[in-house]
Amino acid sequence: MIKGKQSLSFTQAPFLISSGCVVGSKEAKGPLGKHVDMFNTDDLFGEKTWEAAESTMQKEACVIALGKAHVETEEVRYLFGGDLLRQGIATSMGVETLQIPMFGLYGACSTSGEALALASMAVAAGYGSNLLAVTSSHFGSAEKEFRFPLGYANQRPLSAQWTVTGSGAFLVGTAKSHVRVAGVTVGKIVDYGLKDSQNMGACMAPAATDTIVQNFIDFGRGPEDYDRIITGDLGKIGRTILWDLAEKKGYQLKEKHLDCGLLIYDHEKQDTHAGGSGCGCAAVTLSAYILPKLAKGEWKRVLFVPTGALLSTVSFNEGESVPGIAHGIVLEHC
Amino acid sequence: MDKIQKKKREEQYKKYVKTKTPVHNLFANMTRAFITGGTICVIGQGILNYCKFQKMPEDLGGAWTSLLLVLGGVILTGMNLYPSVAKWGGAGALVPITGFANSVAAPAIEYKKEGQVFGIGCKIFTIAGPVILYGIVTSWVLGGIYWIGKLLG
């Protein structure tokens, strides 16, 4: 059912049947390390390159999610997946062996939300009873793609975020589970003209605010109607900007707000500066931390808002700004 | 929203973000850069002095000094130690010749996987390239000025 300007509310809500997450060594040592399904100590996952390692993570995450639900790959109707690399190669190479009909997506670090929204819409429309949503990021491949080779000696600014090495896969379908996708709010591209790619939290915070506020308006809700509102990777700086921007629009988010970028690492010990980032950041946190709490009923309703900074090295070099996007996924215990 | 309003919002947001964004402490950073850069220079001076002690001509000694510092920078990069030095020392680790060595060695290591020609060959100077190009251009300009100055006596 169409809700307001940008949202959908599912009358027969699709279930989030199962999830799988795979992380690298730094994430495994972090606060969520105990809760992940699989990790690798050398970040290469038995491969020779960062890119191949990222693909392997995606494949493993999918296999774990399917295994938990006892669903064979042939039973999955479509797969929605994406990553941060050029032309989305981590996904293309990663899910190739699964032989599931697929849609490749790009939403920067908001891809988990984009994939979940599309998979839920497809299930709600009756286009399949098992759909996979998957995404990943890798510190090595992302540094190489967007910044410098790993061995290059430079000093990261305090506003910089650390790309999460990790992948999360989610099986969305009609089989009953304890978490359902009750609705989605698809985000717009929001550009406040910031050009600093080393301060992505500030670039994405306006988009997160826009989507969260739109979700409240579309559903006629407020922060009090959610147990938690969890953004993808705003980090320390973006978080406070979100609070300020939302307050200007009349909403107090501070009490209910969490950020995956601040949950996945221990910032005192792991030296990640402003927090975690990357597609894997929100996906891994959703799988390892948020879904279990929803499944147990500790939280009844959560607004999950992965955020993405839409830049490329070319757009950055050509002096373009860094626009943001955020998608809102309403998750409910059932 | 028209263009002027958008521009105004962008300016305001930029200013606001600046107040929210922490930066490295300039004084602490300068002190660390001084210590790191100084230490590298002292090592260089040590090598040069040793060369002199061995009765080596000065220009040959200078060449050995540069060579050994570059070697040190490359080895530390290969062992993944140089980034930690730079993290602490900032520009103190970047500006000396060891930093230059790092900026060539790091891409070589990273892009080796993309092949000898299209990987190492094309991308080894992605960071050092601009320094080399504009270094040569600058020396050419300075050479021209020197030449004109000489003509004028």
From TrEMBL, chain A:
<dbReference type="InterPro" id="IPR010894">
    <property type="entry name" value="SpoVAD"/>
</dbReference>
<dbReference type="GO" id="GO:0016746">
    <property type="term" value="F:acyltransferase activity"/>
</dbReference>
<dbReference type="Pfam" id="PF07451">
    <property type="entry name" value="SpoVAD"/>
</dbReference>
<dbReference type="InterPro" id="IPR016039">
    <property type="entry name" value="Thiolase-like"/>
</dbReference>
<dbReference type="InterPro" id="IPR038369">
    <property type="entry name" value="SpoVAD_sf"/>
</dbReference>
<protein>
    <submittedName>
        <fullName>Stage V sporulation protein AD</fullName>
    </submittedName>
</protein>
Automatic annotation (TrEMBL), chain B:
<keyword id="KW-1133">Transmembrane helix</keyword>
<protein>
    <submittedName>
        <fullName>Stage V sporulation protein AC</fullName>
    </submittedName>
</protein>
<feature type="transmembrane region" description="Helical">
    <location>
        <begin position="121"/>
        <end position="148"/>
    </location>
</feature>
<feature type="transmembrane region" description="Helical">
    <location>
        <begin position="62"/>
        <end position="82"/>
    </location>
</feature>
<dbReference type="InterPro" id="IPR005562">
    <property type="entry name" value="SpoVA"/>
</dbReference>
<keyword id="KW-0812">Transmembrane</keyword>
<keyword id="KW-0472">Membrane</keyword>
<dbReference type="Pfam" id="PF03862">
    <property type="entry name" value="SpoVAC_SpoVAEB"/>
</dbReference>
<feature type="transmembrane region" description="Helical">
    <location>
        <begin position="88"/>
        <end position="109"/>
    </location>
</feature>
